[in-house]
Write a structure and sequence with these properties.
Elements lengths: L8 E11 L5 H5 L2 E10 L3 H6 L8 H14 L5 H15 L4 E9 L9 E8 L5
Antiparallel strand pairs: 1-2, 2-3, 3-4
Length: 127
Amino acid sequence: MSDPHERDSVFVRGLEFEGNHGYTAAERRGTRRFRVNLTLELPLAAAAASDKIVDTVDYWKISEIVVALGTQSTFKLIEALAGAIAAKIQDRYPMAAVAIELEKLAPPCPGVPAACGVRLHLPARAS
């Protein structure tokens, strides 16, 4: 039996965009910078053997989904934004479990943190 911590995956790291997300109306009026790290867990043996993109996920399309949602929508909570991104990715790739880490860079908080964020994991919809 294989180690459950060693799963095949496709990842996108350090994807950045500017968006109007924040709990207060003032935060939503201005843009802030966000960074996303994604891991999609799914079997990759078929893609490794076929060398065909139809047997995997297209990280260009994943990046496009993240940037479109992040720049063209508005959420009060980054949890909601992370959930919307993960759900939209699974609409396209239901066989993939999606782990997303979403950071709000330089949030307006005491102590001036470099980033605050959330981590969310959605299991695969289809097996």
